Amino acid sequence: MAVAAVGWGAQQFAPLLLVYRAELGVGAATVQAVFAVYVVGLVPGLLFGGPVSDRWGRRPVALAALAASGAASALLLAGGHGVGWLFAGRLVAGFASGAGFSAGAAWVRELSAGSVGGTERGPRRATVAMTAGFGLGPLAAGVLAQWAPAPTVLPYLPHLALTLAALPLVLRTPETSAGGTGGLRIAGVTSRRFRTVVVPLAPWVFGVVAVGIAYLPGLVAHRLGGFVLLFCTFVTLIAAAAGISVVPLARRVARGGTGQLLAVAMGLAIAGLLVAAAAAATTDPLLVVASVVVLGAAYGCCQVCGLAEVQRMARPGQLAGLTAAYQAISYIGFAAALPLAAVDHAVAPPVLLLGLAALAALTLAGTSRAVRTSTVPEPTLDSK
User: How far is residue 354's CA from residue 158's CA, in Å, rounded to a whole number?
Assistant: First the structure.
């Protein structure tokens, strides 16, 4: 619930992008910058939260992340009065997500490790928890912004209530990290497997999501009339739903090895970007929906693949730190919509999206070769 609450706070802003453009009179690039500044806070949050929770425990970091997530919503409540509040709120939300996801994902996987099939279930449960928050947050925010009064205030209240409800549950959850005496350096990030498989894969996890929920709706906004906000909410929800729905399939494919799941994940990313290019060329909202479904499925497969790789590589006492490093790279993809929006007046959006599809194909080729030529340690979580 705590991981879902942090995910809710991370994504509740997404369907409100066009609301703030109208309320504050700012341009598309400014709103995309507010969306992307989340990453500026998230990366230090990940790099702080992972090693700190490995050394001093999961619970303190999870509690701090929940508190910061609530504070971010409080700042965003004032966003209707000026864009500066939005930048501040998104920055704090990023830090909260970084700390919460690194410690929380490791905590979920360690709690799962004692059950039958826990090594496989851990990444699935962590992915579902994060993605549930990613989907429900925008849904609640979008519905309230569309039909409730104060569209820049009320959408944030459910997240504040959820955060308060999660706090006592975190306090009662068993601690799984015995702590350590080492420093805060993240071990494992220099290994060949991490550099050649995890690092190239990671930005696509949230890069495909950003293209689907933050960039594509703006290309068809003129076709939607008064339903723009509902459309933004809908595509965010279906991206999360597709990401969750594909997890059982990703788990089965993963049993055949990382190479198989990697091929499926990046193949879906390529397919989704090709459909996105067609949607951009025709400005057809239905093609945007189709693209978002495929891109959401790509997100789910990429996330399971990345988390499973990290779990196999991590030694005792290193799981949250290595997870944090992976997630820090993966969340860079959240900024994908910013350069697209900045240059699409000079380069046609379909051309940009076809270029992304080509880059995804190159990533698939490179990582597939790296999987075949490198080894990964046996899983160590069940022995902790």
Answer: 38
Q: In whole angstroms, what is the distance from residue 302 CA to residue 328 CA?
A: 15
For residue range 161-180, list pLDDT tens digits in order: 999 999 999 999 988 876 65
Q: With beta carbons less than 8 A apart as the criterion, state whether 141 and 13 touch.
A: yes
Asked if 41 and 55 count as a contact pair (C-beta separation under 8 A), the reply is no
Structure confidence by residue, pLDDT tens digits, 55-82: 888 899 999 999 999 999 999 998 888 8
Q: From the centroid of its chain, how far is CA 129?
A: 11
213: Cα separation from own chain's centroid = 12
CA 237, 139, 89 angle in degrees (round to 5)? 110
Q: Report the C-alpha gap between 140 and 3 in whole angstroms.
A: 17
Compute the radius of gyration of the chain from its Cα atoms. Answer: 20
HEC assignment per residue over the chain = CHHHHHHHHHHCCHHHHHHHHHHHCCCHHHHHHHHHHHHHHHHHHHHHHHHHHHHHCHHHHHHHHHHHHHHHHHHHHCHHHCHHHHHHHHHHHHHHHHHHHHHHHHHHHHHHHCCCCHHHHHHHHHHHHHHHHHHHHHHHHHHHHHHCCCCCCHHHHHHHHHHHHHHHHHHHCCCCCCCCCCCCCCCCCCCHHHHHHHHHHHHHHHHHHHHHHHHHHHHCHHHCHHHHHHHHHHHHHHHHHHHHHCHHHHHHHHCCCHHHHHHHHHHHHHHHHHHHHHHHHHCCHHHHHHHHHHHHHHHHHHHHHHHHHHHHHCCCCCHHHHHHHHHHHHHHHHHHHHHHHHHCCCCCHHHHHHHHHHHHHHHHHHHHHHHHHCCCCCCCHHHC
- The distance from CA 169 to its chain's CA centroid, rounded to whole angstroms, is 23
What confidence score (pLDDT) does residue 57 get? 87
Query: How many whole angstroms separate alpha carbon 158 and alpha carbon 181?
Result: 39
